[in-house]
Amino acid sequence: SHMHLLFLGVVKQVVKMLSDYCASLQVRNTFVGHVEPMMVSIKEMRLSFCRLEMFMGVANSKLHAGWLCDNFVAFSRLMLVITGPLFGCIATPNNNTFNTEIHNAAEMVVISCFVMVSHIMTPKPVDHELLRHLFKVFLSCCDSFDKRAQEVCPVGLWDKPNFLSLLNLVNQIKYFGPVHNTNDMNCKRKIQCVKPLISNIRKTESFM
To answer: Which one, 57, 69, 159, 197, has the greatest CB density within 10 A?
Structure first.
């Protein structure tokens, strides 16, 4: 689905990039500690449209460990606010591993992702050519980061299938309308109840 493509595909990969970038600068715990009070406050509001979860501060674990699709949706709404401290004051030139080009490229990936997702998820009509340009800007930012950060994130961003599939979204939105109208998040939560049963059935000979 479109939601799976955007949030468990693209946004999840952007969060992974941030996790790897924090680890390369050795500022992960500092970053998590800085934004945790704000994230806790938002979680305690129990907003149905913003089911935010905490970053994981455990060593050798991804920031988004244990997150579900809903959590990536919430992160995408607050992406600029949450990552602001990282790019504004935590990762600084005083750090021995700091690289200005990589830093700026990582920030552009986050900003372009936020703008792109905001335009995709709006319930209002959006110019299709504008969307096409936003997809290309985001992919260009990912490519720019990949070229500068081979040691930080050895696995490329933009060449993943989910990222390239963004280029097909414009035509799908033309035919089926805004992605916001095909939001299936409520159904996904119900599927979690029966998913283990289905997974077990698929492993039996009778299923074949």
So the answer is: 69
In angstroms, rounded to a whole number, what is the distance separating the alpha carbons of residues 54 and 7?
17
Angle between helices 28-44 and 12-25 (to 10 degrees): 140
CA distance 176 to 159: 26
For residues 87-108, average pLDDT: 78
pLDDT of residue 125: 81
Estimate the crossing angle of helix 69-77 against helix 185-201, to 10 degrees.
Answer: 150
> By C-alpha distance, which of 114, 124, 117 is closest to 181?
124
Q: What is the mean pLDDT of the chain?
A: 80
Q: Which residue has the tokens 């989910």?
A: 162
For tokens 């109840």, name the residue. Answer: 193
Number of H helices, E strands in the chain: 10, 0
Residue 183 above 90 pLDDT?
no
Spacing of C-alpha 13 from chain mean position: 6
The string over 65-87, giving b where at least 16 C-beta atoms fall within 10 Å of a residue's C-beta and e elsewhere, is eebbbbbbbbbbbbbeebbbebb
Tens digit of each residue's pLDDT (9 = 90 or more) over 11-59: 988 988 888 888 888 888 888 888 888 889 988 888 888 888 888 765 5
Closest listed residue to residue 121, CA positions, set 43, 35, 10, 41: 10
